[in-house]
Structures are given as structure tokens and as C-alpha cells.
Amino acid sequence: MSATDCLFCKIAGGEIPATIVKRDGRLLAFRDINPQAPTHVLIIPTQHVSSLNDARDAGLLGEMLVFAGNLAREAGIAERGYRVVVNTNPDGGQTVFHLHAHLLGGRRMTWPPG
Ligand code: AMP
Ligand code: ZN
Q: Is the peptide bond between 45 and the residue preceding it cis, with omega within 30 degrees of 0?
């Protein structure tokens, strides 16, 4: 399923340009347009899922985390560390309603998040 007006579906379909980092199976990684860290990559399923609230495929969610770990290694940030974030709905800070994980690294993160 592809949501007609979904920005990330359009990126997955090549209708809107993005800096693609990696494509593998059911997943796509591309650079965040407004990076919050030296490495800031978004990982999405190519098929539309609105948010973590609608994600029922445990295999897909597992693949997203393995993919994030591989991307971190390839970006050279795995040893120093990084953060993987899935913002969900308004209180979680989600602004694009196509499931995505943020991979952030290359600087020291703070806790608690804002
Ligand atoms: P979230 O707030 O968790 O929904 O994250 C959405 C992210 O998408 C933000 O970090 C935005 O900077 C990013 N974003 C929005 N539009 C684009 C785009 N066209 N290409 C790449 N990243 C985008
Ligand atoms: Zn979508």
C-alpha cells in the first residue's frame, strides 16, 4: 500500500529526491534534510505504515534495528555510540506519518531528550 500524499512513500518511490544511503529488501535509508547530528539517517519501510502504533510486523521492526546497527557500523560511529529513535504521534514529536527510525550519531547525546 502506498499513501497518496505521504512524503516518505514519494521518496521510496523516487518521486521526491533524497540522498539515499542504502536500500535493502523492504527498507530504505536516506539522509535527514535537517540533520540534528553529524550522522542523521532515516530508516523507513518502503511500504506505508503510519506509525509504530500501526506496526504489526515484528520481523520488519527487527530488520529496521539490524539495518540501523549496520548503518552505524558503516558510518564509523558504532564503537563510540549512537541513538535510534522512533517518534510516535504528537507527544512523541512525530511530524511525518510514515514509520521511520532516526539513526543519530557523531556527537555525544544528552538524556533526557527534549
Ligand atoms: P519525525 O519528527 O520523527 O516525524 O521526523 C521527520 C523527519 O523527517 C525530520 O527529522 C525531518 O527533518 C525529516 N524530513 C522532512 N522532510 C524530509 C525530506 N524531504 N527529506 C529528508 N528528510 C526529511
Ligand atoms: Zn508512506
A: no
Model confidence over 24-58: pLDDT tens digits? 999 999 999 999 999 999 999 999 999 999 999 99
Pocket test for ligand 1, best of 5, 7, 33, 104 (most atoms within 8 A of CB): 33
Place of cell 529488501: 25
pTM of the full structure: 0.97
Ligand 2 centroid from CA 18, angstroms: 15
Q: Domains along the chain? A: 3-105 (3.30.428.10)
